[in-house]
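G., the chain you wanted modeled:
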Amino acid sequence: MPSFARSWVCAIVLICWGVELYAQSSAAPANEPKSGSGAQAQASQAKSAPTTDREKQVEKQEQSQRLLGVLPNFGTTSRRNPPPLSASGKFHLFYKSAFDPVQLSVVGLQAGFSQAEDEFPEYGQGAAGFGKRYGATLADEVSSGLFTDFLYPVLFKEDPRYFRLGEGPIKRRFGYALLQEIDCHTDKGGRSVAWSNVLGALTSGSVSNAYYPAPERGFGLTMSRSAISIGYGSLGGLVDEFYPDISHRLFHHHDKLVPQP
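Predicted structure as tokens:
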């Protein structure tokens, strides 16, 4: 792995871990009843506790979903109006998706194909060349998830999950899936331009100039990589939307996506 890419990934993990710990410590006092509220506050807290616990269980189940039982599909929900993710929840979604063992294996396959096709010849061949390609690919994946699933969603109060329609005409669902990369849910339950995805692609593409070979840097290549990233995100929306239907037809079982209550 290139030294800069390795340092970049480590820095992301350390910074985000600190943010998560801060978010958890800041949220802790909110669970304590305010002074003077007495039995009424305690009763209200007891009433809301089952709902909070149930939501945590649902989020945990959603973030355990896998396509074909293997590929991570943690950022998809079939619920229409779930509670928004907290900052800590968005970090957890990013971290779990970026560093899932299967995802790390997929990065290795991408690096292997890249080496077989002699992409980025400046990296060379052999173990050293593979390590550099693996590091660059991993840095791409981690930085993309960092900005699109965590930092920008927290900043713009957007929900990074994909919200399935799950029903209705195929044409409508097809168009809906393609547009989700640029049209997202907000934490308040409304709709907005998906600045997290757009700016996340641009930011990640810009950061990659620091570790790609010199011939692969520059404004034009950055914009090209950003556009490709958004395009792949739109295609990924089609998978998120229709995979449960395809799985049910092919394997004759219901997918494990959590349904709308």
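Residues 1-39, 41-49 have pLDDT under 50 and may be disordered.

Shout if anything looks off.
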